[in-house]
Design a protein that fits this description.
mainly alpha, single chain
């Protein structure tokens, strides 16, 4: 179990670092674009790059939120059930969530194949496959977060005290 906790902690720190870098990068691009626009010389690539950065931030931050179990949920509903229903409901909910994100990863990969050869309009040296790779990567990171949290969720569903994974 200590190895699982170490891997979980490593993934959480990695997602925190990526999220911070993406937030700072997005803020920097927005500030630079504002300065250029104020000076009367708008950047042609700003809108496209900021949109991609926001999408990346959304996917990585969603995986981080999943890792921290901070997504919207109704824990009172599960804990209010009789113990015999808690574990099956907890497992079913995780299977549904992970199934959705596995489907998203698969379809995201298909999208990447369709985009082969496409580039950003304002920055033709950047591949659209690269910018959209966040879809399958973010989905797999979300699934990993759910898998790392599964022991905690099952322990809570059984009514056992929450101990570090």
């Amino acid at each position: 179990m200590k190895t699982l906790a170490a891997w979980r902690s490593l993934l959480e720190r990695l997602l925190e670092g990526i999220t911070i870098i993406l937030m700072v990068g997005l803020a920097a691009v927005v500030v630079v674009a504002i300065v250029y626009r104020t000076a009367g010389s708008a950047l042609s690539w700003y809108d496209e790059v900021a949109s991609v950065q926001l999408a990346w931030l959304t996917y990585y931050a969603a995986a981080l939120a999943a890792m921290k179990r901070a997504h919207i949920s109704v824990p009172g509903f599960v804990t209010g059930l009789k113990p015999r229903f808690r574990v099956p409901l907890a497992v079913a909910s995780r299977v549904i969530v992970m199934g959705f994100f596995l489907l998203l990863a698969w379809q995201g990969y298909d999208v990447l194949m369709v985009l082969a050869g496409d580039t950003l309009i304002s920055l033709p040296e950047i591949s659209t496959q690269f910018t959209q790779s966040v879809i399958p990567i973010g989905a797999i990171l979300f699934v990993l977060a759910e898998l790392f949290n599964l022991p905690i969720v099952l322990r809570e569903a059984r009514g056992l005290e929450d101990t570090p994974a």
